[in-house]
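Protocol step 4 of 5: obtain the predicted structure for the target chain.
Materials: sequence only (see below). No template structures provided, no constraints applied. The aim of this step is simply to have a reference model before the mutagenesis design in step 5. Sequence pasted as it appears in the construct record:
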Amino acid sequence: MNQLSGEKKIKIVDLGLIDYEEALLIQERLLRLRQEDRTDDTLLLLEHEPVITIGKRGNQGNILAPKEFLAKQGVKVCSIGRGGDVTYHGPGQIVGYPIMRFLNHVPGIKELIRALEEVFIQLLNKYYHIAAGPIPEYPGVWVGNDKITAIGLSIHSGVTMHGFAFNVNTDLTAFQWILSCGITGKGVTSIKKLTGKKQDIAIVKKQVVQCFGEVFRLKPCWEDKTTLL
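Step 4 output (structure tokens):
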């Protein structure tokens, strides 16, 4: 799972900083196109304006802060169709939405999640010398007892949407407003916290794409976001 192949390609589109619901509409449109084989596998990369999302089996009680407080902080709350519970997205966090026919690349859902985890395990080790790994009962990537990458997917007719959220320069105080992923006794972390240095998001996005291509054995092809319009 670590050799790049030129036989299969994936489009990479950087949406920049974008509202959650606007990005969701883009995902849904791409999902339909991919299901109809009218577009290729695509990885959307972006940062979200502050939002708390609740997965389809999520518990509203895991949002700890009052709605009035969140509104004053400019934080939206959205119920969505991915797996997982409650999580936070905001500036400084790289979010990736792979719109893929995943069985073309891995044999099953467990292998898909494991491959996504491996992207960040390899990235953190290769570029930052940070030892990270999975915790079997909780999807995602962890540094010790702290989560650095959340993973939550949904699959429709063999095509994935939603994806991962990788804490780079994320304001971690926002996670005090929720019980992240409904998990007690564990924390969250970021590259900035672990290195003591704010990172260049553009550089880290390129690192994500490089490792994604290596793990899934795909050739990344960057395209402008105007191609999605």
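Step 4 remarks: Residues 1-6 have pLDDT under 50 and may be disordered. The longest helix spans residues 109-128.
Proceed to step 5.
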